[in-house]
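Can you give me the bound-state structure? Components:
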Amino acid sequence: MLRAAMQWVGQVIVYVILCAGVGALASWPHYQQIEPNQAQIKLSLAHSGQRSKKCRRLTPQEIAKMPANERRPNTCARQRVAVRIQLLVDGNQLYDAVVEPAGLSRDGPARIYEKFVVSACNHSVTVRLKDTPGLGDFDYETTKQVAFAPYQSLAIDFSTDKGGFVFF
Amino acid sequence: MTAVRSILCFFFDVLESSLARFFPAQWNPLLNLGALGFFFYWIIAVSGVYLFIFFDTGVQDAYASVEYMTNDQWYAAGVMRSLHRYASDGLVVVMFLHLLRQFGLDHYRGVRWFSWVTGVVIIGMVYVSGITGYWLVWDRLAQYVAIVSTEWLDRLSLFGEPIARNFLHPGAIEDRFFTLMVFIHIAVPLILLIFLWIHLQRVTRPRINPPRGLAAGVFASMLVLSLVHPAVSQGPANLAQVPESLGLDWFYLPLFPLLERMPTAVTWGGAAILTLLFVAIPWLPPMCRLQPATVDLDNCNGCIRCFNDCPYDAITMVERTDGLPFERQPIVDPSLCTSCGICAGSCPTSMPFRVGSKLSAGIDLPDASMAELRTSLHAAAAHLKGDRRVIIFGCEPCLPQLLVTNETVATVPVRCIGQLPPAFIDYALTKGFADCIVVAGCAENSCYYRFGVQWTNGRLGRTRDPYLRKRVSDDQVRVIWAGRHGRRNLQHLLLKIDADLEEQKNRKARKNDRVVAERSKSHA
Ligand code: HEM
Ligand code: SF4
Ligand code: SF4
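Here's the bound-state model for the whole set.
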């Protein structure tokens, strides 16, 4: 009798241990991705650089050689130039990369997805992009003063339709 | 590997015997890990179907629908949600314990590679199911899970556009992508069920249902946990913020903080190496192949006992091909046969009494045949002296614990205790080779060849063919199932047998004296 009772009690204890373990580890200990005094910048874009060679007018002879249904006035190389992107926070360069176009024939967009942790306070955020051939200046540049709240996640995307960098 | 296995074996042995103090033998959770896995799966499936009725599959409304279930309908959908979560965690716990136990018991090599490798696929599916499940709540944990997992997948650059861009800012997320996750969360568990079925293809009579008492206990405790500590969401997802402090489910997401921080070479390289290693474990090192069972049709009457007893589905009964007047004959698939010899133990033609003629069973192991067993029995008996002689039939996997040789005790090894036909016990006793027989095998519920112990118990208890003959009395056959204390228990048993035989002898002598005395009295 006593033995049977002890068995039941023992079983209950085993189940309690199992439940306590499962219940606890299902959501504890807590995990912090970033510190409370930090914020995050996500810089991500998919943008096609310009074609690496300018389109060229075809000569009348060249046009004549083409099959009738494929005749057109210009020929364009498919390759695009690599895109250079820079991110500066308060003048400090956090990111500077030349991103190659995607695709075997290098005709796709250049894509990046980068994250940066910054302190949660006022920052001047500058992003620059160059998508043309040659060594000249950046084609796009945006600077914004951002008052970062703790845990804020600032996303920066790029869209030529929207005139360049977009801050979210 | 052997050292790791021994440590695990010891660990499970200690845990199992501790649990045995509280649970009836059949209810011991450690002996029902696979079955508990199935039980948790069914809890998850039923609660999942209920949740799906109230769940809104659009990303905008998913969170609100889960909140409704948790708060407004806490007594039904809320409990279902908690059961769904905690049973999923329970599944991970029993799955890994089951894996470790199979590994510790060396149940994963040789022809058993199949169960192991399908098991590895199952681990992947369980994780995909769990992780996508967390995604659906669309709270801040879901946001974290979605972002870390997509960022990790993106590191392989398989998808044109990084899929993590779906979560760049609050306006980026699309319903389409979210619906895909809902679909994956339903489809993968269904495929998992198919894989569980495949997982069991090479074992006969798998235990997929835990005993009622254990199932009731587990379910009741999950229910209590769900009521006392319900699963809740962690605030609505907000892609404009990094989640503050997160309550991670450490059963499903323990590697997420690493995925986030470690370089690609470590995370993807590690994942690839770990997967390969896991798949390759049955061949590290490979098991030396014992010869599979072979059938000798001249000695087979098609009784199907071998087919009934084979633990690995290696025997099929087919139409007779040799013209003998029997309906069927067995054939053995060598790629499924573990060479346990249980079939030979069940074959009615494994008859040691056939003196003179060659002992040839209908089904037998070429490298550990019935004829050899009889020869080793003769050899063992030849060395024994006195009138308290004991022969131990001991199974090979536990032989180190069971091997005893001295003037009065000899051990005859068998591949598995299920390989021992009961007729051999009868033979050894009636031929006067020993005064007592000990039948010794693996720990009762951890038989290396799954059913050796169970079938032997049935044969000796005369409830399973082939029966031990009635003329063998109970005190002439002792049974011992080794375990952690196998050696010690065997020593105790041998001492007890010795004392019993001594006592029997004295009793017989006293009886003789009495008879003689009575006779002489009546003469007088
Ligand atoms: C949800 C997960 C799983 C469930 C529900 C499950 C269930 C089962 C069941 C019911 C058995 C039959 C046991 C018996 O009756 O003797 C079994 C056997 C087996 N399982 Fe699993 N299993 C799971 C995962 C795994 C994993 C992850 C592995 C290893 C990677 C694994 C390895 C094995 C092996 C090797 C056997 C064969 C044992 C033998 O041949 O004696 N299983 N499993
Ligand atoms: S030796 Fe074992 S696995 Fe092989 S056929 Fe006989 S019973 Fe089945
Ligand atoms: S147990 Fe023996 S006699 Fe019966 S079918 Fe199998 S091999 Fe034939």
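A couple of observations. Chain B touches chain A through 49 residues (CB under 8 Å). The CA atoms of residues 352 and 375 of chain B lie 10 Å apart.
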